[in-house]
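Notebook p. 47: complex prediction with 6-diazenyl-5-OXO-L-norleucine.
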Amino acid sequence: MPISIEQLEKMITENRSHTVLGNTAQYIPALAKQDPNLLGISIMCPNGSLLNAGDSQVSFTLQSISKILSFISVCQEYGLEYVLEKVDVEPTGESFNSIIPFEIHRPGKPFNPLINAGAITVSSMLPGTTTDEKYEQFTSFLQKLIGAPLAIDEEVYQSEWRTAHRNRALAYYLKESNLLELDVEDALDIYIRQCSIKISLQDLAKIGLIIAYNGYDPIENKQLFDKEIARIAKVLMVTCGMYNASGKFAAYVGVPAKSGVSGGILASVPPKWLPETHELQPGYGIAVYSPAIDASGNSAAGTMLLKQLSKVFDFSIF
Ligand code: DON
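Predicted complex, structure tokens below:
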């Protein structure tokens, strides 16, 4: 069933009240200031058409959404095997910035690249020797996916840098275990830079589409990263992408997704065969933004909107 803008606008109206179930990220002052009432969605279709509804003309920082993208970028450069020597692919059941799983399983490696310990490790592995080179490499990888350059939100970067006490502590643990390819301060710098990159809903939806199509860009007809890397990325998104709510998200939405504390969610709906109608349902890239996040760190209204959308259009892969 084709998706119409009218249906999407109706869903936005129905889900907007769920913003009261969350609050903007209070631990990063620049994110705390975001308007908690916003709710927008952008869906990128494989023929290049875009469906926008609600507060869709917004830009926001990637935050933890960047973690799956740096993982893909480092794997594409050095191969999956090399990266998976440093980070595992297991969910933790702890909050995203917890030190507990890493500390009690030593000697070991971070459980997955989507918790902060794993993400800081992966950021330090980005190609290049200096943080500037690593940042350039990462943004040029993103530029290949969306076809336009991206920039940092300086205010968010500064705000995070000043309040990154727990991440600094995590980075010292990682350094002690020889997992960082940079000094602590440089590893934090590149991690916070990648979290502070500003993106529009439309560009994020394009990235979601490429992940849904296993690294292949159906609009430009180009394979941009390996299928096997996309497969592992989707597994990570399903099992760990929504943190401690990943199980519920898989049950009620059922598509690979990654959230960030700025209130963005990147979702990839893979194409699927519908045996009942003998039809191939196309894949979609979906980006939602609503900055009021719940206790797990996921956009409250964004999650509810995706739940309704998945139910109506039968997006679940399970
Ligand atoms: O490490 C942090 O605190 C943030 N820069 C990113 C965390 C984040 O987005 C977790 N998301 N749900």
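Notes: The longest strand covers residues 264-269. Residues 77 and 173 are 26 Å apart (CA to CA).
Next step: compare against the earlier run before touching the bench.
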